[in-house]
């Protein structure tokens, strides 16, 4: 079969379908509700229970031009681990649902984002294959109420459930708030590019395999 790059006939309606998804994920540790609109305007309603995480999720919405609602009741009396990881998982599930069959998207995206002395590069592939490669040596163990080790857990959760390959490199930075913010902003920009529709690829799944 070599028809992977031939537009299929059933794409016209798929392309006008809203890329919106809602996921409710309940465990004994957390209850997470996520709603996402990949073609949004950057509006966010965020109640993760961790202030600095809300600030980071806001970057995803704002710089990804994604509408994002996140509501979490987590076991923060233990620590932030389950909350941060499960929010990553649930956002990943919502993205996988919203992006659908990936017809017409660019698939790959990358961005470099600075914030004063800090600089990060994020490269994403909506490949269908989970893979996280993250290199960031945070200069502090905590940023506000967020344990910086949990940034990795957030992205691991996202990657596993969104089915993406994600390379995150913090290239420079002294202030941990800046390091983290450049990562989330670059992640948002990279996703925006990867998820936007490429007019020259209308109705085409961007893979020689014919599926992603
Ligand atoms: Mn900030």
The CATH topology corresponds to Ribosomal Protein S5, domain 2
Radius of gyration: 17 Å
**CATH architectural group:** 2-Layer Sandwich
| Approximate shape | globular
**Percent of residues in helices:** 25-40%
Task: Quickly describe the structure.
With 212 residues, this protein is α+β, with helices and mostly antiparallel strands. It has five helices and ten strands. Helix 2 (51-64) links the parallel strand 3 and strand 4.
SSE map:
Elements: H1 11-16, E1 20-26, E2 30-37, E3 44-47, H2 51-64, E4 67-74, H3 81-99, E5 108-115, E6 118-125, E7 131-135, E8 142-143, E9 146-147, H4 149-162, E10 165-172, H5 176-195
Parallel strand pairs: 3-4, 7-10
Antiparallel strand pairs: 1-2, 2-4, 5-6, 6-10, 8-9
The chain binds manganese (II) ion.
EC number: 4.2.1.19
Subcellular location: Cytoplasm
Family: Belongs to the imidazoleglycerol-phosphate dehydratase family.
Describe this structure in words.
Keywords: Amino-acid biosynthesis, Cytoplasm, Histidine biosynthesis, Lyase. Belongs to the imidazoleglycerol-phosphate dehydratase family. Its EC number is 4.2.1.19. This protein has five helices and ten strands; from the N terminus they run H-E-E-E-H-E-H-E-E-E-E-E-H-E-H. With 212 residues, the chain is α+β, with helices and mostly antiparallel strands. It has a single domain, classed as Imidazole glycerol phosphate dehydratase, domain 1 (Ribosomal Protein S5, domain 2). The strands form three sheets. A four-stranded mixed sheet has the order 1-2-4-3, with helices on one face. Strands 5-6-10-7 form a four-stranded mixed sheet. A two-stranded antiparallel sheet has the order 8-9. Helix 2 (51-64) runs parallel beside helix 5 and helix 3 (81-99) runs parallel beside helix 4. It is globular. The protein starts with 10 loop residues before the first helix and ends in a 17-residue tail after the last helix. Bound molecules: manganese (II) ion (MN). Residues 55, 177, 181 line the site of manganese (II) ion.
